[in-house]
Amino acid sequence: xxxxxxxxxxxxxxxxxxxxxxxxxxxxxxxxxxxxxxxxxxxxxxxxxxxxxxxxxxxxxxxxxxxxxxxxxxxxxxxxxxxxxxxxxxxxxxxxxxxxxxxxxxxxxxxxxxxxxxxxxxxxxxxxxxxxxxxxxxxxxxxxxxxxxxxxxxxxxxxxxxxxxxxxxxxxxxxxxxxxxxxxxxxxxxxxxxxxxxxxxxxxxxxxxxxxxxxxxxxxxxxxxxxxxxxxxxxxxxxxxxxxxxxxxxxxxxxxxxxxxxxxxxxxxxxxxxxxxxxxxxxxxxxxxxxxxxxxxxxxxxxxxxxxxxxxxxxxxxxxxxxxxxxxxxxxxxxxxxxxxxxxxxxxxxxxxxxxxxxxxxxxxxxxxxxxxxxxxxxxxxxxxxxxxxxxxxxxxxxxxxxxxxxxxxxxxxxx
Length: 416
Hints:
By secondary structure, the chain is α/β, with parallel strands linked by helices. The chain has 2 domains: 4-60 and 368-411, Roll (Urease, subunit C, domain 1), CATH 2.30.40.10; 61-333, Alpha-Beta Barrel (TIM Barrel), CATH 3.20.20.140. Helices cover 32% and strands 21% of the residues. It has 14 helices and 17 strands. The strands form 4 sheets. Strands 1, 2, 3, 4, 5, 15, 16 and 17 form an 8-stranded mixed sheet that branches. The chain has a 4-stranded parallel sheet with strand order 11-12-13-14. Helix 3 (113-120) links the parallel strand 7 (102-107) and strand 8 (128-130). The two termini are 30 Å apart. Residues 155-161 have low confidence and may be disordered.
């Protein structure tokens, strides 16, 4: 028989309804939730009981835009490091994310199937990992990080599939091949670069990338493999083209306007803002040696970040939690909760980090919810997060218990 755990006297956050349900018991068998009830059910053969004492129990958090191998902000330099070293450095990034309450993350390029397997086997402690592999980029696109004058495509070492630098593809045929390579190597979602970026040297922020035919080809190949495409894009034009081509989630999207948000809503697309990284880079970009051009682009997207949330919310676009942090700035992951509070209610922020992320990732009923059959990923927190999410912004103090797949990852509950 699987090991059985009981969470008693729990106030459960129903992420789908966005409400709290008091006086509940949660029964866990093995790695799954067996029952959630506010009725006095009898539970036998319990290996361990946790008394929530009325505290709120949340589904494990989901960060839908991370780079777990980004141990440095210098992505070009990182790409030249031995893949074994990059992988080793990722272990602390993964562990720290889990200790902040993120039991699942969606990697937006960089992590490969080997790292995913290492986490699944328990060799590395970390969140459940959904991978994109290499981001697909046109020549000169956001993931083409070659210095000016370098012509060969294989300038960076990528022998282990640690793909922070893009798979460069031009033309429909090359795009299809690049997407199929990510599928072959175990991708759970396909990352495409549909517009300009901040950190890339040769692409304007407002520009579009890939032809419409190339974008459609990428989305077709993703859907053919029962996957979906996520697209880096900032400008209204880039976002609109990507969504109309079939992209499921827009990453960043800081410069969207009302018309663009309506197109997203009509096509069922999700927005994954990553405001924590702009706040971090606004503080540190100059010290890190970013060029004046990069800092100008940063200032533009930073200034419009919160407004993009207001626009998306007003038009009914689902907003998912993401952070996109690099290097030493990973410690700022919880700050995304505080930043979003300027435009979203606590419940909306919580749903973005639970049920909406699960829906985006096509994992509804598996993660992001406390329902029978779902993974037993949960947090017990102090305070009422439907009124104030500050306990999640300070997880070392605000989170009492972290379970992932029924396994106790951190316990400050039984210690008092």
